[in-house]
């Protein structure tokens, strides 16, 4: 066997592997021998069928397996000879593979880039205090009361937090909005709906709730609305200004429940002090989780910023396509039309490729740290990852475990994810920590 190594770039190599005729014939005979062991033909005992008859009767099957074995031998032996750390097989050109003749196979590979890790211990991280303030506890309790609030009709003018029952009709330059979006009448005219006064989150009509304060039942008002330029709910309205004629049918004020025994029982505490203690503990856990998340992000940003090397093209392209698919799927669920993705495809691809390049680079760094620190995956690590993924995807853990056992690529991806997480956790464990004061 002759192997010629060609370098297309720092991370992309091609192997031109030539097997002589005797090596090719050896693989062919091996395939015939394997088929002969299991072949069943009338008049012959298993394993006793003449090889010439085997070669004629199973010609197509032997040819396919023969090509695979020759390519596999070329790949396996050439890697052993060249000692390449392969990340991905980009392309295989088989050429002519036939008995009695040499065979040349060209294998294009992306290999792991060589780089030196910077000092990755003692990275600086910043966290916020985890002890909740009295005001934070009070705000959470107010939110808990709001979740159980009652809404009672009132004759007064509407205030922030009230709910209004109303009807509206929209027009753009005197033309009914309903005619512009006939398939989405909720943007055109609605005989009855509810809107929260001053709601931070937009309702159906963006910004409508922000302009409803000070109205009473029976009041009418014309309200100007400018739809966002990227309005996905009804793209025909994007960037346009409409006037909605609104009629108030009812005003309901939010009435919070009392902090009484019934309220405390509903939250499994005995009194206000118990509720405050429970809320305080939950807030502390949330803050600790947020700090942990922030530290992970900070160490990853720092380690990536201190290391520069070329990343394998095939891994970047695969990651880019995955990001694009996810972005498009999420956009379609939000109602973004397909033609919008086509219009923005150059910008979307460029952004996804940059993000993919950064992600692949970080993964290679974390993999090298994990190798250097001899981080390993335990059965508990794998079982925990399977359980968490099952909960996230709505599968049964045992069914997911069986799927992983049958799909080596899926299992390998999960193992890589575990190793990356363990490497980040290691960086956080070795980082320095400074507690900053929260912004007012």
Could you characterize the architecture of this molecule?
The protein is of the alpha+beta class. It has 3 domains: 2-111, Trigger factor ribosome-binding domain (Alpha-Beta Plaits, 2-Layer Sandwich), CATH 3.30.70; 150-255, Chitinase A, domain 3, CATH 3.10.50.40; 275-435, Trigger factor, domain 2 (Orthogonal Bundle). It is built from 13 helices and 12 strands. It has helices at 21-38, 51-57, 59-82, 134-147, 177-180, 261-266, 272-305, 313-333, 338-343, 345-372, 379-393, 397-406, 408-429; strands at 2-7, 12-19, 86-93, 103-111, 124-127, 150-153, 163-172, 175-176, 189-196, 220-226, 241-255, 432-435. Strands 6, 7, 8, 9, 10 and 11 form a 6-stranded antiparallel β-sheet that branches. Strands 1-2-4-3 form a 4-stranded antiparallel β-sheet. Helix 4 packs across helix 7, helix 8 crosses helix 10 (345-372) and helix 12 crosses helix 13. The longest helix is centred in the middle third of the chain and has 34 residues, at 272-305. The protein is elongated and about 100 Å long. The N and C termini lie far apart (71 Å). The mean pLDDT is 91.
Summed up:
The protein has 440 residues and is an alpha+beta fold. The chain has helices spanning 21-38, 51-57, 59-82, 134-147, 177-180, 261-266, 272-305, 313-333, 338-343, 345-372, 379-393, 397-406, 408-429; strands at residues 2-7, 12-19, 86-93, 103-111, 124-127, 150-153, 163-172, 175-176, 189-196, 220-226, 241-255, 432-435. It contains 13 helices and 12 strands.
